[in-house]
Amino acid sequence: MTIRFGHAARWALIGGLACVTVAAFGYVGGWLAPHRLTPQRLVDTFEDNAGLHPGYRRNHAKGVCVAGWFEGNGAAGAYSTAAVFARGRTPVVGRFALPGGNPYAADGSVPIRSMALRFNLPDGGQWRTGMNAMPVFPVSTPQAFYEQARAARPDPATGKPDPARLAAFFAAHPETAAFRAWVKQARPSASYATERYDSINAFYLVDAQGQQRAVRWAMVPQAADAGPGPAGDPDYLARDLQQRLAVGPQRWNLRITFAAPGDPVDDAARPWPSDRRTVDAGTLVIDRMQPQDSGPCRDINYDPTVLPEGIAPSADPLLAARSAAYADSYLRRTAEEAHLPGAARPVPEATR
Amino acid sequence: MNTPTTFHPLARLLHWAMAGMIVAMLFIGAGMVATVSERHSGLLAIHKPLGIAILLLAIARLALRLRHRPPSLPADLPLWQRLAATASHWLLYALMLALPLLGWGMLSAGGYPVILGDTMRLPAILPENALLFAWLREAHRYLAWLLFLTFVAHMSAGLYHGLVRRDGVLASMLPSRRRREPVVTDG
Ligand code: HEM
Ligand code: HEM
Ligand code: HEM
User: Fold this and answer.
1) Number of Cβ atoms within 10 Å of the Cβ of A154
2) How far is CA B128 from CA A34, A122, A156, B110, B167, in A?
C-alpha cells in the first residue's frame, strides 16, 4: 500500500486532534498544570503537617458528635425564606472539634474550638455550617491559607513549626493583623459549651421579595462559666461536655449580624465593627453526644456552601475553596472507611 | 428491504447536541475538581443540571435508537472494526446513562441535597451511606475517564471514515445531503 502525502496529512490531522484533545483534558484536570492550587494539594498540606490519620477528617480531626435541635423564634423570618427561621423546631446533627489535622492533639494545644451543624429542614432542604470560636480568619484567600499551612509545617528536628518561617509569613501578609491581635490574648477554654462560634465568612439572607442582605452569624453561648482548661489532661473537653449534658441540655443563641453598606462581605480577615445591627433568630439546644468514630456526624461533610433556599453564599473566595477541599477530605476519609483499593486502612480508636 | 443510508434526523440532532454537552461535561467535571477558586462552585452549579439533562436526553435517544435502525456499515469494513464500532457505541450509550445516575446516586448516598439551579431539588435515589458514597464517587471518576478515552477513540474513528476511507459513514451522521450508497440486505 502506498501512502500519498495527502493520506499522511489526514492521518496526522486525526492523530493531532486526538493528542490536542487529551492534552486539553490534562491541562483542565490539573495534571499538566502542576502549579495550580488544587483541592488535593491543599488537603495534602494537612497530611504533611499532622501525618496521615486514615478515616479522620484532614483538618479539625479531633472532635465529638452531638445532636439536638434548633428552636426558631421567627425573628429572622422577615429577612430569609429559609424554613429554619420560622417559629418551631429543626433537628440538628453537629460536631465540636479542635482545628488541626491531629486526632490525638491535646485539648490545651490550641486556643480555638469549632462547632459544625447540619440542620435538616422540614421541607427537605439542608443548612450546613462550620464555625470557629474566633472573630476573624487570619487570611483572605485560599492561596494565602496554603502558604500559611506550609509555613506552619513542623520542623522534623524539633517537631514544632519554625518560628522564623511563621514570622516571615506574617510579615508578608499584613491582612493577618486582626487575627494576630486576637490570638495574642486567646486562651484554650475548659469547655465547648462556653464558647461563641462565628461563621466568619459572610453569606446573604434572601427574603420573600428576593432582596439579599449580607450577614455573618454566630452561636452565642448561654453558659457563662467560661474558664481556662485544666493543665495535664489532654482530653478534658469531651469529659466536660459529658458532665454538662448529664445535668441538662446546652444552649446557644443564633445571632445574625447584618452588614452596613461598605462593610467587607468577601473578606474573612476583616471583622465588622461591633455596633452592627443583630437579630437573635432562635436557640440551639444540644442534648446528646456520641464518639466521633461511631456517631452520625462521622459521615457528614460540613460543607458551608450546602445552604437552604433563603440563604446564599457570598463571593468570599474561601467559601469555594472550603467546598472543594472538604469534598476532597471527605472522599479520602470515606474511601478509607469503605476500604477502597489503594486507600489507607483506618485504625480503630481503641487500639491506636 | 433497504436499510436507511443516514441516521434518523432526530438521531443526528441528538448525536451532535449531546456530543457537545457530554464533552463539555467531561471538561467541566475535570476542571471543577482541580481548582479551589470560585470556578469550583460555578462549574458544579452547571455540572449537575447539565448532567441530569444528558440523562433525560440519553433515555430519549436510546428509545429512538431501538425504534429506528441505523444505517449499516460498509460491507468491506474489516470484522474487528465492525465489532469495535458496535461495542464502543453501546459503551457510549451505557456511559451516558451511567455517569449522571452515578452523580445523582453518589450525592444521595453522601447525604447531600441534590439541587439543580437555585431551587429545584431532586429526591434521593439511594439511602445515606458514606461507604457507598465512596465507591460511587470513585466510579464516577474512573468511568468519566473511560468515557473520555472512548470519545477520543470514537472521534478518531469517525474522522478516519470521513477523511481516510471516505466511505460515507461520517456523512451518515452529518446534517449534509451526501448519502452512503444504499445497501440492499435482502430481496
Ligand atoms: C481555604 C480555607 C480552608 C480550608 C482549606 C479548610 C479545610 C478544612 C478541611 C479539609 C476540613 C475537614 C473537612 C472534612 O473532612 O469533613 C475542615 C474542617 C473544618 N473547618 Fe475548615 N478550612 C478552611 C477555612 C475555614 C474557615 C474560614 C472556617 C471558619 C469558620 C473553617 C471551619 C472549619 C470547621 C468548623 C471544620 C470542622 C467541621 C467538622 O466538624 O466536620 N474552615 N476545614
Ligand atoms: C454525562 C454526565 C456526567 C459526566 C461526563 C460527569 C463527569 C465528571 C467528572 C469528569 C468529574 C471529575 C471526577 C474526578 O476527577 O474526581 C465529575 C465530578 C463530579 N460530578 Fe459528574 N459527571 C456527569 C454527571 C453528573 C451528575 C448528573 C451529577 C449530579 C447530579 C454529577 C455530580 C458530580 C459531583 C458532585 C462531582 C464531584 C465534585 C467534587 O468532588 O468536588 N455529575 N463528574
Ligand atoms: C462524547 C461525544 C460523542 C458521543 C457520546 C457519541 C456517541 C455516539 C453513539 C452512541 C453512536 C452510535 C449511534 C448508533 O448506532 O445508534 C455514534 C455514532 C457516530 N458518531 Fe458519535 N459520539 C460523540 C462524538 C462524535 C464525534 C466528535 C464525531 C466526529 C467524528 C462522531 C461521529 C460519529 C459517527 C460518524 C457515527 C456513525 C457511526 C456509524 O455509522 O455506525 N461522534 N456516536
Assistant:
1) 14
2) 35, 17, 41, 6, 51
Position A2 in a domain:
no
Residue whose CA lies nearest to ligand 1 atom number 11: A59
The yes-or-no answer on residue A173 being catalytic is no
From chain B, the residues in CB contact with A11 under 8 A are 164
User: Nearest CB to A38: which of B36, B38, B138?
Assistant: B36
Q: Sketch the domain layout of chain B as residue ranges.
A: 9-72+79-165
CATH number at B9-72+79-165: 1.20.950
Interface size A-B, in CB pairs within 8 Å, comes to 126
Residue A1 in any domain: the answer is no
* Positions in chain B short of pLDDT 70: 1-2, 176-187
User: What CATH number is attached to the domain comprising A249?
Assistant: 2.40.180.10
Q: What is the pLDDT of residue A159?
A: 86
Q: What is the pLDDT of residues A125-140, one digit of tens each?
A: 999 999 999 999 999 9
Nearest protein Cα to ligand 2, atom 11 = B29
pTM over 0.90: yes
The contacts of residue A50 (CB under 8 Å, 6+ apart) are: A61, A100, A101, A102
Position A4 confidence tier, pLDDT thresholds 50, 70, 90 = low
Domain that holds residue A310: 7-351
Helix (H, G, I), strand (E, B) or coil at A312: strand
pLDDT of B186: 42
- CB of B107 sitting under 6 A from ligand 2: yes
